[in-house]
Design goal:
binds alpha-D-glucopyranuronic acid; globular; 32 strands; 19% helix; eight-stranded parallel beta barrel; alpha+beta
């Protein structure tokens, strides 16, 4: 379009994001468990940039003088801004930021040993900066150079800074967590929209040719490994597992498979092995549990044995830290889940932190991991698909070696339309292409017209997730038995959600159960659900909604007070509601029956 004669970029350009979307950061996850990483956490400066002026007027280029050396009028002063301790969610840093949704600019300086170029006898190396998670779109700049834009608030990404690194550096990240109709998730969800750099930021120095990712697992009596190398399509790698006496050379073109009899990882015996991969001058390792998960008919098999998933759903959230949960908080969640006799958790509705799966590997909990293809996203929009597929790729690449992760979910409660079928069917195929070793699922809805499990997406899934709220959103409890009798799924079903709101500590006054939000009401729903579901042979798992109350801007009843209170625990996890004990008892019996 011809620009008018009085055109000024910074104030007249409406679609300023287009420039940044030209350089999307995708599939950038690097296997880094054993790599030396320099933390860039700590004291950053930040400024609320509600109109994205940093991106519109390119503050990041720091043009402070014009061509003639005259100082330019500036509307920012990065190093005089307020300090913030990264990682964190900005919402919990001050009252004024609690509900803030929009642009935020983060910056800090950092020093790093220079890269000694090859010609000066140095080792040719490459330097990356890794973000564990940034909630919102993130445009990254280092030393006034645009490094790329990442979409996806819950997956890690890396930017290569080799060519721009100096002894003294400035990094600047323009974050915008505004919900968007074309986003993944879109602008309507049932959880709180935190913002910020809420997971670790680290600098990683790598050899010029390095092992980017690998997948090691166990299948039919063999340990296999596949390796991808940045900078080589073929060449000899070594798989080393000392405890099993394995030292196998292989060409990365083909991967390797060696007969082995490892102690199989299981919830009651979460055995992890030190696995090393070597290629050229690069060597990495990881702690990996070997196990097999499969589906046969209507059974879910772990190491060849049929299992029942005694689960619970959970958001990634704590009252104190929002989405920036700590390792201690994750361990507390798993300890409480085990106290409820769980062996399974549904990490809803987006990828939780990498630590969540690593700790589950350690303590022995099975996990459902999910991308936020939630409700009615723009299934017709190719950019939306690209975003969803990239988040799926980043999640699977990050957690593919985690024994605890037993199922990938490509979405939740989506309307059964043609465009959704095509979109999510492609995601299911993509998940299998990246990782053929785990079943694929999605949380589907019951066909309320015919009272059947009839979602077309089921043909693309290995395990059928079903969310149903009989007893809460639909009071007619005569329906669920009909639904399950009318349905004859050929695959295992996990009831991925059922539940009822309940105000912790509120017990009904009239001695009846018709007090919604009372503990007795919630308990009554759970008892009826347990009675109905436990009688259905093809239900092989349950993950009630939800483990603990969580912040939710859609919940404005005075009893909810801006929280979704379907938790079996209070939001601070200190109070167990009556229904917690009902699940604990049911799962205790399920566990005994399985022995
Ligand atoms: C839906 C949805 C959840 C939501 C829950 C509820 O099933 O999957 O994200 O929080 O119901 O209504 O509480």
């Amino acid at each position: 379009m011809k620009k008018p004669k009085n055109f000024q970029e910074g104030i007249h350009t409406a679609d300023f994001w287009d420039f940044y979307k030209e350089k999307l950061i995708q599939d950038s996850v690097i296997a880094d468990f054993s790599r030396e990483k320099i933390s860039l956490n700590g004291d950053w400066k930040y400024g609320i940039d509600q109109y994205d002026t940093c991106l519109r007027n390119r503050w990041w280029s720091e043009h402070e003088y014009d061509g003639g050396g005259r100082a330019l009028p500036l509307d920012y002063s990065f190093d005089e801004w307020e300090s913030v301790e990264i990682p964190c969610c900005w919402n919990l840093q001050s009252e004024k930021l609690f509900l803030y949704e929009g642009g935020m600019v983060y910056t800090r300086k950092f020093t790093t040993p220079p890269i000694s170029p090859l010609e000066e006898g140095g080792v040719n190396e490459r330097v990356f900066i890794k973000f564990g998670g940034v909630s919102g779109r993130a445009a990254v700049f280092v030393n006034k150079a645009f490094m790329g834009l990442h979409e996806g608030s819950s997956t890690p990404f890396c930017v290569e800074v080799t060519d721009v690194l100096q002894p003294e550096n400035r990094i600047l990240v323009a974050v915008n967590n505004t919900r968007r109709a074309d986003g993944v998730p879109m602008d309507n969800t049932d959880w709180f929209n935190y913002g910020g750099i809420y997971r670790d930021v680290e600098l990683i120095r790598l050899p010029e040719v390095f092992i980017k990712a690998f997948h090691a697992g166990f299948k039919a009596g063999n340990i296999f490994a596949r390796v991808s190398v940045d900078g080589a399509e073929s060449g000899t790698a070594v798989l080393r597992i000392r405890e099993l006496g394995i030292e196998a050379e292989f060409d990365i073109k083909n991967g390797v498979s060696v007969p082995a009899s490892p102690e199989l990882w299981d919830v009651d015996n979460p055995k992890l092995y030190d696995v090393e991969i070597e290629f050229g001058g690069d060597k990495i390792s990881d702690k990996i549990g070997f196990r097999e998960i499969s589906v046969q008919g209507r059974e879910i098999l772990l190491n060849g044995r049929s299992i029942f998933l005694r689960g619970i759903s959970a958001h990634e959230e704590s009252v104190k830290n929002g989405k920036a949960v700590t390792e201690e908080e994750i361990r507390e969640n798993y300890a409480l889940a085990k106290e409820m006799n769980c062996n399974f958790m549904r990490l809803a509705h987006y990828p939780h932190s990498e630590a969540a799966a690593r700790i589950a590997d350690e303590v022995g909990i099975l996990l459902w991991e999910e991308i936020p293809v939630y409700w009615a996203i723009e299934f017709h929009n190719p950019e939306t698909y690209d975003n969803a597929e990239n988040q799926l790729t980043e999640l699977i690449t990050r957690d593919i070696n985690r024994a605890s992760v037993v199922v990938w979910s490509v979405g939740n409660e989506n309307p059964d339309t043609d465009s959704r079928f095509e979109f999510m069917g492609r995601l299911a195929d993509k998940a299998r292409e990246i990782d053929g070793t785990r079943p694929i699922t999605a949380a589907c809805l019951v066909d309320h017209g015919t009272l059947r499990i009839a979602d077309r997406l089921i043909e693309k899934l290995d395990i059928i997730g079903i969310n149903e709220y009989y007893g809460w959103y639909d009071p007619d409890f005569s329906k669920p038995p009909k639904v399950f009798e009318n349905s004859s799924p050929e695959k295992p079903v996990i009831i991925s959600e059922f539940g009822a709101d309940c105000k912790a500590g509120f017990t009904q006054k009239r001695g009846t159960r018709d007090d919604m939000f009372s503990e007795e009401f919630q308990l009554d729903v759970y008892k009826k659900q347990i009675e109905t579901l436990s009688a259905i042979e093809y239900i092989k798992g349950i993950s009630p909604w939800i483990f603990y109350d969580f912040r939710c801007p859609r919940r404005l009843h005075y009893m909810q007070d801006y929280y979704n209170i379907k938790g079996l625990l209070s939001a601070d996890k200190k109070y167990k509601k009556k229904a917690f004990y009902a699940m604990q008892k049911f799962y205790e019996k399920k566990e005994k029956d399985a022995l």
